Amino acid sequence: MIVLAAAVALIGSLFFALGAALQQFEAFGTAKPGLLALLRRPRWLFGGLSILVGGGLHIVALGLGPLTVVQPMGVASLLFALPIAATLHGRKPARRELAAAGVVAAGLIGLVLLVPESAGTTHLAPQGVLTLLGVAGIAAVLLWAGSRAASPTGRAALLATSSGVLYGATATLVRALVDGGWNWWYLLALPVPAVLALMMLQRAYAVGHFGVSFASLQIADPLTAVAFGALLLGEPLPTGVLPIAAAALTAAGTFALARSSPLEARL
After folding, report:
1. Which residue windows are transmembrane per the record (predicted)?
2. How many domains is the chain partitioned into structurally?
3. Which domain holds residue 166?
4. What's the whole-model pTM score?
């Protein structure tokens, strides 16, 4: 079931990559990328539809396998998104960018392969939901505040990381709902981090530096979900030296992406 869950999540990541590239293309350079304004743009809406399809497949995958396996598989969307975004901007991604994205993907996939299989039914108590939303909310606000004084590259990274934290919290809540923990209060709470994550992400896309922002999102999202999955859902974490090496590889790839020229500026 773990292999099937990973395969479904991988297909979902392709749809997510297409949607992200389309939405970034529409949000880039917008002074105030408000959701109401973006909702009037057909290409942005089509991107949203693609993301919904990817999200639906992701939910199916969450029902087939543990959060610590499914969530990091979304990193493959980084490899899909860069060429798609480059095509939309009428350019080609540099080999350095593709190589850096490959390093990020290799690091996160390495973490996936090192995660032990989870056993038992997932359960999230009401106080766990409050902890989840509270911790994710505080972290997101701190990252947003830091972005206001950062360089354009740093601003894109911090805003996208803030979005990733909120999406990771959303995925954790979805996992609890899918795995037998149905609760109407949980369902009502679900849109809160999801909508805030979407707003933060559009602000990151408006800055530019798509490679950096999307990589930051893809790293923060699974790492947050894995952390919450271990702390609140009791899912196992990998141990030993190899996970540390995989994490270092991921960090190195992200740093390389941050040093590259943005796709939007390459004329």
Report:
1. 43-64, 98-116, 128-145, 157-178, 184-201, 213-234, 240-258
2. 1
3. 2-265
4. 0.78
